[in-house]
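Below is how a single chain appears once it has passed through the pipeline. First comes the sequence as given, then the structure the pipeline wrote out for it. We keep one example in the README because the format questions we get most often are answered faster by looking than by reading.
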Amino acid sequence: MCGIVGYCGPRRAVPILIEGLARLEYRGYDSAGIAVLENGALVVRKKAGKLAGLASELNGYNGEARVGIGHTRWATHGCPTDANAHPHTDCRGQFAVVHNGIIENYLELREWLGSKGHRFSSETDTEVLVHLLEHFYRGDLLAAMYRTVECLRGSYAVAAISLLEPGKIVAVRQDSPLVVGLGKGENFLASDIPALLPHTRDTYILADGEVALLTPHEVKVFNRRGEEVRKPLYRVDWDAAQAEKNGFPHFMLKEIHEQPRALRNTLHGYLAKDGARGVLKGVPLEESWLREIDKIFITACGTAYHAGIVGKYVIERLARIPVEADIASEFRYRQPLIDRRSLVVVISQSGETADTLAALREAKRLGAPVLAVTNVRGSSIAREADFVLLTMAGPEIAVASTKAYTTQLLAMYLLALHLAALRETMSPEEVGRLVRELEGLDGRAEAVLQNGHLVEKLARDYCAASSIFFIGRGLDYAVALEGSLKLKEISYIHAEAYAAGELKHGTLALIEKGVPVVALATQKSLFEKTLSNIKEVKAREATVIALTMEGQRELEKVADHVIYIPEVDPLVAPVLAVIPLQLLAYQMAVARGCDVDQPRNLAKSVTVE
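Resulting structure:
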């Protein structure tokens, strides 16, 4: 969840660290800090609150340091205070450490270190790391890091510097991401690629258990046994401009508007139009084996889980294979009945989501092949899965996911059509017709975005609501779940999504005069039933905002407001239907004065359980 940066080279370290932290602030913004080696001293500056607080504390200080580490925090152990902010230092002020993850046995280690005379100044689990380094140091920072890691249980990405070896950064990862950036006469470290883009596109992506030693002139990577390993070079092909706002007031709005391009890029990256042999090119799914699988499990968290629910609907409908959609944080605890005749699909924008990664590992332990749908090449999930379907959304900076979600939906459609073609549950003509529907989604998404003025007015009119409910049936219910999540996570309005058919089973009790209800009605086969549900909430004097396809004018007679999306095959309507809900959440958050890109208590990548 937290963001780590590091620099060693000929340039002043402080501005580079602050710039890197700004690019990683979506990973956590409870506090921020830096530690640099300057004139024989270890200089630490840290401050609770967002990065602007640290910048104010520095007051223009750039210093002369050429080596340093920085951190932006999402609090787990200990409140967001100056004392709990990273970096943490040892008793003598000779070592500094930053950490992303959770040290599960930190209380045991803290008690043991306390018995050895170490003094603690924070409530964090991280502080045990720096005292372990101090305890084990015998003239070699790399060796001390290995001794430290031997004591740990949990997840971690750690970077450390020391006055005793001033030209070095030592870093290690286990279940938390860490990327080394390779420069000329300088080297970099970061939790995520966007922090490196202004300086280099050549990277090493560290694997679990690997330790990196950075100096200005070289990077060495070692495995768990201390043996040096040759890392493959990963050259980042992202457009650096995608990690900038480019005139938009927020990353979220920019990323909402990038969805047509993201859909185009993802579709064209994989679409093979020979319906008889499937539609996925470049993903080496074995045809004979795919014809024999008898069940599919889709597992993910948050927004990605909602994409998985849509995936369940479309795969079952098109390929006629039973599908279960599971929340990844629960998946492995229910002892799922999977084997080699099952396909497990894991979905994660970052490819580092801790619970999803754990579900992947459990699936592989049980012998099931795993397909990863992720936006980050070289991520842990991409590396460990048997097959990878990369979404081509580009870097997503806003905490609330938008373009990653719609490209994940597209991945689900491509997988469903591929399976249907191979298993001959659809004719080539039927596959071709749905492929053409997918090909037209980018243009229709543009049309939805161009008609966002009604949504902006609705947001202003209803932003003071204390609760908003979303209802829908079938695929509309899956989209309602995502619309509800978007609204609550950035506007802080209490929002819930219900299957419209469940209203009479208890939830109708929550409907009272003036309560806004967003009713989705894009599924033609369920339209009349949804219309009846809308009349039910109107009878309780709710205010209804309906979302449907062009041509469905009946809703204007019963709903207070109607949002239209272009007519499309109902099966792929979720890709278009979610866009007005994203805009509604965004505009409501803006109207309420919320920090859209950095909602309270949240971070972009959930890399701890």
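Residues 210 and 398 are 29 Å apart (CA to CA).

See the next section for the split statistics.
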